[in-house]
Amino acid sequence: MPPYPYTPPEQFGIVEKGVYRSDMLQTSHLPFIKQLHLKTVLVLCPELPTRPALNFFDENGIKLIHLGLPTWKPTQPPSWRPVSDELVKEGLELVLNYSIHPVLVMCISGIHETGIVIGCLRHLQNWNFSSIVTEYRSYASSKARYMNEQFIELYDLDLVTLPSNLPPWFVEQQKMLVSHSSGLASCEFIGKDEKLEHLSYRFFD
């Protein structure tokens, strides 16, 4: 028996509670993946998982969602975009659908399509762009592509329709952001009010 009975995929990572990412699964990864009790696997690239992985999904009642070639590449005319807006839109709407969690998001490399979708998720979560790029490069390393980073930065989040059944972590994050924004607005208003009061004292002294 090997010293480490569970071998995670090379690009495996925890995105949020119930959301994972990886490159394509090999037979050696399956015992590790089984511990995640997945409900769904979301494949972002045109290629299908290996036959052992497909059999594993069937045996464990895991639903495979393969976005496939039609939504993978940008439509004509040719564009600099590394993937289509539709792929990212569909990917984000599925990742944010709590009813299909726990979910594993993957592509061949675990870097490019997956990195873009997770980067756009971070954008949707209001991460600053520097943090998004840092996370993207931590997986991509020397394979990082500037066009992927540019796509994440420029992606129109208004294209995404948030599902009604959002994950608790996303709901809580949005509440915190609203609360923080309200607090900043209140502080700014109070600061202006104090400044006016200070000016009035000076005027009447």
Termini separation comes to 86 Å
How large is the share of residues in beta strands?
5-15%
* DSSP E strands, number: 5
Treating each run of at least 4 consecutive H or I residues as one helix, how many helices?
7
Low-confidence stretches: 189-205
**In what order do the strands lie side by side in the largest sheet?**
1-2-5-3-4
What is the C-level CATH assignment of the largest domain? Answer: Alpha Beta
Organism: Jimgerdemannia flammicorona
Subcellular location: Cytoplasm
Pfam family, one: Y_phosphatase2
InterPro entries: PFA-DSPs, Prot-tyrosine_phosphatase-like, Siw14-like
Q: Would you give an account of this structure?
A:
This protein is an alpha/beta fold and 205 residues long. The chain is built from 7 helices and 5 strands, in the order ββαβαβαβαααα. A 5-stranded mixed beta sheet has the order 1-2-5-3-4, sandwiched between helices. Helix 3 crosses helix 4. The relative contact order is 0.13. The C terminus is likely disordered. It comes from Jimgerdemannia flammicorona. It is found in: Cytoplasm. This is Protein-tyrosine phosphatase.
